[in-house]
């Protein structure tokens, strides 16, 4: 397992080559709802010249249901199964920046796959930031089960130790998403090259 590294803001002109320097691996963003995975992911993909995929969007396309509708009709267990399958499919495809749902990294099989096929980046955010962002659009199924702030706090307590297993951590605060992108690019540039898999050789 890769050791977590401190990240620093760095100029976008890092000279990072995602094909060579990242050993053909996808960048997989993990973290709680409201951490900015989709917004940061789009900007990061543009910066690295890679396509961007959002796991939740891909699930919606595959099921022809919104995430909220899927939860309501089929329940969380069925959603997690479908999520696992979608992420597995995406990670066996071309390199990309992939934003995952908040619960995806909690699944051990999914974590193992991400470790094999990608470089995981935890977007870490404080409770106030998450709550403020989530309340802008109150469409999160898990937050409809009670007090949203308490639910977020409970999810932080449960999930942050697992998110901490990610290869890299970038703090996502109140500032522009470009700052977070700069942190991630800097941290990626400082990574030693991963050992190539047999398929890369």
UniProtKB/TrEMBL annotation:
Report the cofactor remark: Binds 1 Mg(2+) ion per subunit.
Q: Domain of life of the organism in this record?
A: Bacteria
**Reaction catalyzed:** shikimate + ATP = 3-phosphoshikimate + ADP + H(+)
Q: Which Gene3D superfamilies match?
A: P-loop containing nucleotide triphosphate hydrolases
**What Pfam families does this protein map onto?**
SKI
Q: Which UniProt keywords apply?
A: Amino-acid biosynthesis, Aromatic amino acid biosynthesis, ATP-binding, Cytoplasm, Kinase, Magnesium, Metal-binding, Nucleotide-binding, Transferase
Residues binding ATP: 34-39, 140
- Tell me which residues bind Mg(2+): 38
Which GO molecular-function terms appear in the entry?
shikimate kinase activity
Main localization (coarse): cytoplasm
Kindly list the places in or outside the cell where this protein is found, as annotated in its UniProt entry. Cytoplasm
This entry's Enzyme Commission designation comes to 2.7.1.71
Q: Which cofactor does it need?
A: Mg(2+)
Chain residues that bind substrate: 56, 80, 102, 159
Q: Is Transferase there in the keyword field?
A: yes
Record note on quaternary structure = Monomer.
This chain's function reads:
Catalyzes the specific phosphorylation of the 3-hydroxyl group of shikimic acid using ATP as a cosubstrate.
Q: Which family is this sequence assigned to?
A: Belongs to the shikimate kinase family.
- Can you say what this protein is called? Shikimate kinase
Q: What gene is behind this protein?
A: aroK
